[in-house]
Design brief:
247 residues, globular, binds NADP nicotinamide-adenine-dinucleotide phosphate, alpha/beta, 11-stranded mixed sheet, Dihydrofolate Reductase, subunit A, 27% strand, 6 helices
């Protein structure tokens, strides 16, 4: 059973979690609307033994599916693609139909951010020729790496080295992909927060402790304190699903 705690407390079926969710269109003067989606342990860790999969339960998976039903593009750092074994975001027939009915492309684009270009061509993420991911990269990337994936990805060289948030969102907006779901990891999240382009946060807090040196959901050298407004809270099997919006 899913409990909605805020707003309007109610007991619901899990399938009702974020049913019909839409992601906001960018506000006037902003190129994109960026929602970040992350799962963390109660002590703030983003992974167990290097993977986030051990943290979230059924509700976290449902939330991610609902978010991917509503976005134009999933944005992800190369570290997460390498660590988590990303696959193309084809989704179920039901999700593709649902997206099409909302006027969205049946499958969201996937955009991978990398400064090194070090993405092996045999990664699963490149396995669907019909859905080549976007690779947003820089002149610092090794040209041999980029040559190895050029027939499997749509490569955009848009910076000298590390991409800042402004160049990421501008590039996505120019590609007509304004509703962005940022799926991490922590270092990419830091760039989006520090650049003022983290508009919303969907955070699943799992009832577990991890300890150790594992990263928090946003990790970088500089603090970038930002106030959030709590929009909704759900509970399912001890998982808390929190939706925040930047004030
Ligand atoms: N709990 C969760 O919801 C969740 C979600 C995602 C990831 N994770 C976990 O987070 C860990 C990975 O963390 P991470 O911080 O290394 O992830 P990350 O941000 O995905 O990866 C960092 C790498 O991504 C590229 N990158 C990120 N931002 C960039 C930018 N602005 N410009 C250029 N390149 C950029 C760089 O790749 P290059 O080295 O190729 O230049 C960088 O080394 C894994 O353990 C994963 O399981 C957890």
């Amino acid at each position: 059973m899913l409990r909605r705690i805020l707003p309007d407390p109610a007991e619901l079926a899990l399938d009702e979690l974020y049913a019909g969710l839409t992601l906001d269109h960018p506000r006037a003067g902003r190129p994109t609307h960026v929602a970040v989606s992350m799962v963390s342990s109660a002590d703030g860790a983003v992974a167990v033994e290097g993977l986030s999969g051990g943290l979230g339960g059924a509700a976290d998976l449902r939330a991610l599916s609902r978010l991917r039903a509503a976005n134009d593009v999933s944005l992800v750092g190369a570290g997460t693609v390498r660590d988590e074994g990303y696959v193309p975001l084809t989704g179920s027939a039901e999700r593709r139909a649902d997206r099409a009915a909302r006027g969205l492309r049946p499958v969201p684009r996937l955009a991978i951010v990398t400064a090194s270009g070090a993405l092996e061509p045999d990664l699963a993420v490149f396995s669907d020729p019909a859905e080549p991911p976007l690779v947003l990269t820089a002149r610092s990337a090794d040209t041999r790496h980029l040559a190895a994936i050029e027939d499997r990805a749509e490569i955009h060289v848009v910076a000298e080295a590390e991409l800042d948030a402004e160049v990421i969102v501008t590039t996505l907006a120019e590609l007509s992909l304004p509703r962005v779901l940022c799926e991490g990891g922590p270092r990419l999240n830091q760039v989006m927060l520090a650049g003022g382009h983290l508009d919303e946060l969907f955070l699943t807090l799992a009832p577990t402790l991890v300890g150790g040196p594992v990263a928090r959901i946003i990790a970088g050298a500089q603090e970038a304190a930002t106030d959030l407004e709590l929009v909704s809270v759900f509970e399912h099997e001890g998982d808390l699903l929190l939706r925040y919006r930047r004030r």
